[in-house]
Specification:
Length: 51
């Protein structure tokens, strides 16, 4: 059996009980990055990994 470790890689939508955003959908790009839509702020965020 494999042990899985979970780590937050994108935070900031909730601070001390206050909602600062509402991530709704995620799609992937060809380069492996993620696009996350935020219905509260009306924005799309790109999440990517740098070596």
């Amino acid at each position: 059996m494999n042990d899985l470790e979970v780590n937050d890689f994108a935070t900031g939508w909730l601070k001390e009980g206050n909602v600062l955003g509402r991530p709704v959908d995620i799609i992937t790009n060809d380069d492996g990055s993620l696009f996350v839509s935020d219905d509260d702020a009306g924005k799309i965020y790109r999440v990517y990994y740098e070596k």
